[in-house]
Amino acid sequence: MFFKNIHTRIKIIIIVTIFLFCVIIGKVFYIQVIDYKKLNNYATSLWSRNLPLAANRGIIYDTNGVELASNITTTSLVLIPNQISDKENVAKDLSEILNVDYEEMYKHVSKKTSIERVHPEGRNLSYDIADKINSLGYEGVYLVKEAKRYYEYDTLLSHSIGFVGIDNQGLSGLELMYDEYLTGSDGSIKYFSDAKGNSLSMSQIYEQPTSGVNMTLTINYELQEALERELDNAVSQYNPDQALGIAMDPNTGEILAIASRPNFSPSNYQDYTTEEINRNLPIWMTYEPGSTFKIITLAASLEEKIVDLNNDNFFDGGAVTVEGATLHCWKHGGHGAQTYLEVVENSCNLVCDLEKLLVM
Description:
alpha+beta, 40% helix
């Protein structure tokens, strides 16, 4: 009986051991095979760092493929404070090159972050300044390429295209309205470092940025240039408070050219007032159609057979009273006797206003 109990206990121990062994094997299999990618990403994130690479914004073209807004490549300064051993000298040299206060630069090189972007003094650097920084050869001081918005024709179509901020985010006009499409996906240069920020001898990984979606407008550059030129001439000659113009394809309703004055330079929008930037007069301002609406009332009168262009006559004495209101012709004293065809040729106010009342 005693030996029988021992034998039973051994069986139980063996079964439990096999069960635990199977659990361990299953767990290891789950970690190594099924959950490997997730856990590997967690581990990699602890010692990998990314130097950001900004994506190009989508290019804005006119209807014939002329570039109205594109991108140019610039350089920006990025610091990895943990890799900078001589912080005093680095701060001193960078402050002199960038013309920044030493104390301010020392805050950047001493900041407790994995990556520090020097903003705004270290953004969109000229080639000369970038070369000076690069020649220092300091550990932890990096120059990364960035895309900067470039407006080929400066003030041309400025209100409609709009402008972007220092981080290439749309702030007004089409740049703002279609920002989610024009903005691409940023890339990076991934490097590896230990907990103290020291670089590990592992290959860097380059993740290419993806450019934004290009946009083609109905605007015709040649017509736009002509319209802008004529507006400038009008402003120069008459000095009006404002001026505007639109060219439209009557068959499709497409806008071929649109502009207003005063305008501004999208590349230097900080130098202008909010009123100058935001007042896109052709779509913002309300105004009476005036004599252009006379065509509508005439067409309606002809359609309803109220008038005959060649046989009906009207005498324009300069003014007429209708239900207590006096209507005046633009010509003092009126045009006298005229046919309705001559009314159209003379753009007579009285006849067209009376037609409007008759049609209504």
